[in-house]
Each structure stands twice: as structure tokens, then as C-alpha cells.
Amino acid sequence: MLATLVATAGSTYRKPGARMFILADGSHHGLLSGGCLEADLGLHAREVMGGGRSRAIEYDMRGPDDVLFGIGAGCEGAMRVLLEPAGPGSPAERALSDAGGATRRGRPTFLVSVHESMDVPLGTYGAGAELPAELTDAAREGIEEGRSQDLRLQLGRGRCRAFAQFLAPPPHLLVCGAGPDAQPLVSAALDLGWRVSLVDHRPAYAAAERFPGAAICRADARDLGNVMDLEQCHAVVVMSHHLPSDVAYLRALAHAGTPGFVGLLGPPARRHRIAQELGVDAAALAARLRGPVGIDIGAVTPEGIALSIVSQIHAWLAGRSAAA
Questions:
Q1: What's the CA gap between 167 and 314, in Å, rounded?
Q2: What are 170-226's pLDDT values in tens digits?
Q3: Using one digit for the tens of pLDDT, what is the confidence trace for 243-296?
Q4: Contact of 61 with 78, CB cutoff 8 Å
């Protein structure tokens, strides 16, 4: 079963568009709350699974006593959840598979979760599904504007409510330098669902078995603009620990004018020396360069430093303050 959070009010752990799978044995993957609603959702999922028809479930925990189903969550929020079959060959399975394929190829797409309608079967639909024009047009507008939206329309015999979710490709992080301290950084980024590419000129470092899940490119730093499509990268971290290579990476990034986040590992004195080596190219990086890269969380281990770097990039991607 697929459970999709389609509407919220007040304070909730997750926001519309969050999903979880509920398996036949009662286990689940993902969370819609902090763990306080999942058991009850499992009971509803069994009913839906037995009947084979999708349905919407509502939870309102804004009351002072908050004794709904004995949950006692105290979240001060309300949630509406769409439950639907999602086994092999189901419409939900096809919609999720198609959307995942599109985003993995770097293309934005959308999903429409219809949770109230007398004319359209409740469920999740992908970009290729046959839906009323009003729904698909609104969802495509969301792609153009990069936003999700709650849809309330009059269709046929009555009101239709749906959540049109804009799905952007996962962030693409480029790491220039594949030394030992790059491994926890790559691991943390992959755990967030990001795409990660690495480039390094050293055969012992640029090895796929050291970075499972990442794309590895062995190339000279001076060839960065030729071996990587920098326009497809959202952020880059330069951390080769080899001064000439770092200078070459940054020069290529200065000429490319992208991505908008360029992180440089190392102390301020090293950044100053690299800026001198770059000469006039340093000005092209000034507004984009974060060096030393990472938020100051007092990190001293490679894992802590990786956390500080990923946190800064995450904040920047979300439009939050990413100051060191």
C-alpha cells in the first residue's frame, strides 16, 4: 500500500507530498509522522487492501485532549492521507516508476494525487496518465513555476480535490578530489538522495569500489570543463589536497560560471594563496566561493566535516542562510 500525505493544517512532522509504503506484514518504509500515526495507518491500510479501493484518511490532533484513536500525539496539526494499492502493475506503481525515471534523467515532472472526486478514481497519477485537462494543466503550470499546489476544482458531478506535486531532479553534487575524507562526504550526500559525481586524476583514488553509488571520472583537473557537464551540477566541493589541481578546478569553474555553490576545503590562508594563483579568474568566483567550506559546528573528524559541508549545501539549496 502507498500512503501519501495530501493536505496538512497546523504543525505536522511532514508536509504534503511525503510518502510511505505499508507492506502486507505490517512493516513500512518511510514516515508521515514522527511514528505516532503509522500503526493506525497500518490498520486502515489492511482495510483498503482487503477492499481494493483507495480512500482518504483524516487525522486532527489540534484538540486540547488529543485522544484520537488513543494516539495522544500532541502535534497540534491535522493531516489528510491518501491510501491506495501500489503493488506491481498498479497505477500508483507505474506513476512512481515513471516519475523516478524522469528525475533520475535530470528532468522535472509531477505527480497528481486525487483524494476526493466522484468522477476520477482516487489515486496517484503520473505525467502520462489520462486525467481531466484541468488537473494536468494545473500540474504542468507547477512544473513551469517549480511549485506544488493543492487543487480544488469542480469536475463533472461535484468537487475534486487533488495534490499536484512538482518533482525536481535530486541535487547533483560534484566533488573534485577523491581522497579518504571525500568518502564520508559522498556517503552523506547519497544518504540524502543526491546524485554525486567525483573527479580525480589519481588512479588509486578514482576507484568505483571506494565510492559505491557515485559516478567516478578519472581525469586531469585542467580537463574538468570537458569531462563534466557543469551546468547539470548544483554544487561543487573542491578538496583534492593538491594545490595545482585545486587551482585548475577553480579556474575551470570560474570560466564556466556555474554552479552557484563552489566550496573549497582548507584554511583561509590556503584560499588566499589559491586566489593569488588564479589572478583575474578569482573575481569570477568571488560571489560563489565558500572557503573554508562548511558550517562551523566545531567539526574535527572527516565525518563531522562532511556533515558541516552537506549541511551548508542543503541550506543553500533550500534558500536558507548558508553562512559558514
A1: 17
A2: 999 999 999 999 999 999 999 999 999 999 999 999 999 999 999 999 999 999 999
A3: 999 999 999 999 999 999 999 999 999 999 999 999 999 999 999 999 999 999
A4: yes
Q: Which CATH class is domain 172-317?
A: alpha beta
Per the structure block, which three cell numbers stand in for 316? 543553500
| CATH 3.40.50.720 domain span(s) along the chain | 172-317
Quote the DSSP letter at residue 83.
Answer: E
* CA distance readout (Å), 214 to 181, 183, 189, 209, 304: 15, 10, 10, 10, 20
* Cell numbers representing residue 244 in the block: 595545482
| C-alpha cell belonging to residue 311 | 549541511
Side-chain half-sphere CA neighbours of 312 within 13 A? 26
Q: How many CB atoms lie within 10 A of CB 27?
A: 9
Q: How confident is the model at residue 134 (pLDDT cuts 50, 70, 90)?
A: confident
DSSP 137-148: HHHHHHHHHT--
Cβ distance 103 to 109 under 8 Å? yes
Radius of gyration of the chain (CA): 23
pLDDT over 50 (residue 67): no
- Provide the residue type at 149 as one letter: Q
How many Å apart are CA 138 and CA 80, to the nearest integer?
A: 21
Residue 227 has pLDDT above 90, yes or no: yes
And the C-alpha cell for 308?
A: 558541516
* Mean of the per-residue pLDDT values of the chain: 90
State yes or no: pLDDT of 322 exceeds 50: yes
For residue 180, is the peptide bond before it cis, meaning its omega torsion is within 30 degrees of 0? no
The CA–CA distances, whole Å, from 226 to 193, 219, 231, 250, 256 equal 26, 10, 12, 14, 11
